[in-house]
Amino acid sequence: MTTSHAGACATCPLPPAQAKTARDRFWKRQGIKQTVWVVLPLTLILGWFYPVLGFGVLICMGASIATGFFAGRAWCDVCPRGTFFDVVMRRFSANRPVPKFLRSTAFRIAMLAFLMGTMTWRLIAVWGDLPKMGMVFFTLLAVTTLVGIVLAVPLNARTWCAFCPMGSMAAWIGKRKMPLAVNNEKCTACGLCARACPMELDPAAHRERGLMEHGDCSKCLRCTAVCPKQALSFEK
Where are the alpha helices (DSSP H) in 12-104? Predict the structure, then answer.
């Protein structure tokens, strides 16, 4: 099935009307992000006074994992923290490459084990006290967001997303879900998609196969919007 799909992608150009739809979807997504990112600072501010708001972290964690089973890391593109990095931190970021060791599987597993272990240990200590349990989640959100902000300035705005535990789990679960189709006949490997990708992926590197099946693709549609040849699509 994969081979036939790749062949179809290489010989069937994306129709102009469909390309316009792809760009429209991208800009619509950007409009949504302009609102969603506000959820993060509001939660961090109000959480000090209403710790139970920390349980909202569970919603994001659950949404990330659940989405992974049918759309990979698609949730990461509209996650309140992810949108905060895109909308706010991108303005202050040096936009330098994320060091390879931060992307490594070993580091990501270690980060997952450390954060989940710490969270579980703290929850057990306050189990049954909802405000204190909420504060555990709130503290986790505040500390990891601070780490993400610190890393976003000298590096990529979404450096945290390179090893985010929930994002990593979604990436491992949904690596082959919603792959990006790369039209080999139209792609000129100009590099615009790679420079636009917030996760530092290179769709053109997969043009011969016709599909980019990468777990860290957040389906943000940015590459489809900047491609001058309309060679990229998430359409079947």
Answer: 16-36, 39-46, 56-71, 74-78, 80-87, 100-103
CA distances from 134 to 49, 79, 93, 119, 127 (A): 11, 19, 31, 11, 10
Can you give the pLDDT of all 236 residues of the chain as single tens digits? 333 333 333 333 444 555 567 678 888 888 889 999 999 999 999 999 999 999 999 999 999 999 999 999 999 999 999 999 999 999 999 999 999 999 999 999 999 999 999 999 999 999 999 999 999 999 999 999 999 999 999 999 999 999 999 999 999 999 889 999 999 999 999 999 999 999 999 999 999 999 999 999 999 999 998 998 889 998 65
Whole-model pTM? 0.84
- Domain residues of the chain, as ranges? 32-173
Q: How far apart are CA 35 and CA 45, in angstroms?
A: 17
Residue 186: partners with Cβ closer than 8 Å, 6 or more residues away: 13, 14, 229, 230, 231
Contact 234, 219 (CB under 8 A): yes
Q: Which two structure tokens, joined as six digits, stand for 52?
A: 């139970």
Closest C-alpha among 212, 215, 225, 194 to residue 5: 212
- Stated length of the chain: 236
Distance of CA 74 to the CA centre of its chain: 6
Q: Which token pair is 21?
A: 């739809």
End-to-end CA, the chain: 12
